[in-house]
């Protein structure tokens, strides 16, 4: 059972007592097909479960559609690995890995329509990929050559938010605007378990409930806020908090792409029907560091990581596809080849990004220049000239 299943449970007893109990293998060595109150449609062994309440939401997902979800996850994992390598090689300043969270991101993002709008944190690069970000879009900000990686209007997705939880407010505001405009768009706010401790997220939920905003609050509970475990931050499952705001909350196996797709589609549909927000808690695990600046070996228990390795989001879909005869070695190699090509394009695009002139920093601060800003621009130019004079 997941630790955050325990409502009002006791405080953590050791720094390693977090995230998951010891794995309980079944006789055939599989992990349990059911875990607590999680919505799950696909077991870690790749067995499709019958869940009459949720099945209709994914009734259209045939083998081809499942293959597409599998390929999305393989590509996302592959470019995430490439970005980490680029950072280690000094080509990116920082990267927030999403390893382990592929199903949560792909399943939810593929539930969206083109005219829906997404507000994410810094970790939603898998979502950005599904929204149509190019390989280069994904690294622009992390290389530090621009202040935003893409034009939000092109992807209907805001650029990464670093201020933890702030995007929940932006999402609620945008969703209230959609309602006032009478348009058929819904909004998703992505944030982490740690962000639910922020006042911004609370305020966003209060306003969304009051205004019946067509917004889905999608919490990826990856069990960590940097090195802070989730069970320090909440004594109840995060999804149960929704009841206090007066809208539904659902806990889903965040490593099950089908279940995530189903519950997100249902929540978006509810939003579009004018019935207001839903909180989705996708229970997953951050398999890597918080960012490339972090060292989780100082605080994360390797046994817990093993527990989650047995619940890998990509492996279970691959198992189902192979069992159905929809994927063989040759097919898997072809998918891996396309993932490699995307990663190579990301690397090539990264190398081609050159720093802009440093005084462009001042260009987008305010729409109309002010004397104060112009003075700073002049001072900066003088400083640069002094450095260049020193160098010659
Ligand atoms: C308002 C604010 N406080 C603190 C930070 C520093 N910070 C960056 S990420 C992070 C943890 C967020 O954890 P969570 O919401 O679970 O998201 P995850 O990183 O796990 O995806 C913190 C505390 C910040 N960026 N913004
Ligand atoms: Mg987290």
TrEMBL record:
Residues 72-337 form the Dehydrogenase E1 component domain. Its EC number is 1.2.4.1. GO terms for biological process: branched-chain amino acid catabolic process. PANTHER family: 2-OXOISOVALERATE DEHYDROGENASE SUBUNIT ALPHA, MITOCHONDRIAL. GO terms for molecular function: magnesium ion binding; pyruvate dehydrogenase (acetyl-transferring) activity. InterPro entries: Alpha-ketoacid_DH_E1_comp, DH_E1, PdhA/BkdA, THDP-binding. Its cofactor is thiamine diphosphate. Residues 1-37 are annotated as: Disordered. It comes from the Bacteria. Transmembrane segments: none annotated. Keywords: Oxidoreductase, Pyruvate, Thiamine pyrophosphate. This is Pyruvate dehydrogenase (Acetyl-transferring) E1 component, alpha subunit.
């Amino acid at each position: 059972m997941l630790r955050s299943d325990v409502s009002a449970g006791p405080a953590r007893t050791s720094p390693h007592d977090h995230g998951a109990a010891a794995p309980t293998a079944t006789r055939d060595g599989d992990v349990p097909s059911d875990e607590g109150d999680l919505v799950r449609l696909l077991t870690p062994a790749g067995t499709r479960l019958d869940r009459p309440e949720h099945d209709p939401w994914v009734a259209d997902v045939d083998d081809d559609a499942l293959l597409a979800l599998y390929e999305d996850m393989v590509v996302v994992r592959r470019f995430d690995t490439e970005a980490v390598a680029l950072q280690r090689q000094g080509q990116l300043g920082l990267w927030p890995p999403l390893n382990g969270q592929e199903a949560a991101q792909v399943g939810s993002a593929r539930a969206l329509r083109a005219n829906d709008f997404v507000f994410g944190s810094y970790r939603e690069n898998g979502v950005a990929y599904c929204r149509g970000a190019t390989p280069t879009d994904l690294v622009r900000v992390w290389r530090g050559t621009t202040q935003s990686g893409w034009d939000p209007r092109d992807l209907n997705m805001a650029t990464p938010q670093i201020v933890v939880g702030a995007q929940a407010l932006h999402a609620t505001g945008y969703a209230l605007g959609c309602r006032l405009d009478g348009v058929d768009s819904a909004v998703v706010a992505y944030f982490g378990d740690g962000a639910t401790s922020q006042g911004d997220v609370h305020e966003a939920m209060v306003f969304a409930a009051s205004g019946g905003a067509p917004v889905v609050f999608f919490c990826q509970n990856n069990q960590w806020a940097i090195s802070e475990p989730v069970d320090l931050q909440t004594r109840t499952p995060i999804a149960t908090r929704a009841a206090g705001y007066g809208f539904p909350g659902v806990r889903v196996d965040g490593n099950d792409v089908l279940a995530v797709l189903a519950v997100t589609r249902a929540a978006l549909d509810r939003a579009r029907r004018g019935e207001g927000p839903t909180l989705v808690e996708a229970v997953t695990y951050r398999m890597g560091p918080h960012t490339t600046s972090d060292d989780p070996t100082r605080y994360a228990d390797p046994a817990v990581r093993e527990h989650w390795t047995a619940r890998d989001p990509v492996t279970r879909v691959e198992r189902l596809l192979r069992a159905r005869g929809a994927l063989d070695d040759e097919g898997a190699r072809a998918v891996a080849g396309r993932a490699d090509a995307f990663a190579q394009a990301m690397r090539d695009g990264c190398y081609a990004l050159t720093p802009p002139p440093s005084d462009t920093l001042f260009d987008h601060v305010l729409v109309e220049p002010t004397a104060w800003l112009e003075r700073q621009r002049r001072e900066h130019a003088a400083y640069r000239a002094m450095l260049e004079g020193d160098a010659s």
